[in-house]
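Progress note, sequence design subtask.
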């Protein structure tokens, strides 16, 4: 009995991929465990309906689980400072601009209309 219930829970919980055959087997197993195997044999339509309900629940719960996992991964990645793939090109362009500005500044060229000679200097200990 435990195996039939575990199979049902795994299918409905979305933890395993369900096919119509596995859902029918799970439905028959559940009905058999509660002494309704004869009813299952006589009522294929009911077994089919139960199997379809198991599949629908499995798909819905799997989708919910995937969304929860994706949201948690996105939050963790954001906390760690990771960049989403969609934003990667924009970040690369920004890094290239900053590097170019730094290079110009190190060469003594003006950056944003100011020259290195006219920029205020900060003395150590001041």
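Output:
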């Amino acid at each position: 009995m435990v195996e039939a219930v575990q199979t049902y829970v795994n299918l409905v919980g979305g933890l395993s991929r369900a096919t119509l055959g596995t859902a029918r087997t799970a439905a028959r197993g559940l009905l058999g465990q509660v002494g309704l195997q004869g009813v299952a044999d006589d009522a294929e339509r009911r077994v089919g309906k139960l199997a379809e309900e198991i599949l629908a629940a499995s798909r819905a719960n799997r989708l919910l689980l995937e969304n929860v996992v994706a949201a948690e991964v996105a939050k963790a990645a954001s906390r760690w400072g990771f960049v989403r793939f969609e934003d990667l090109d924009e970040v690369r362009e920004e890094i290239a601009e900053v590097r170019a500005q730094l290079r110009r500044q190190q060469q003594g060229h003006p950056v944003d209309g100011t020259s290195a000679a006219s920029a205020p200097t900060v003395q150590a200990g001041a």
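The helical segments are 2-12, 20-33, 37-42, 44-79, 88-106. Work on this subtask will continue into the next period as scheduled.
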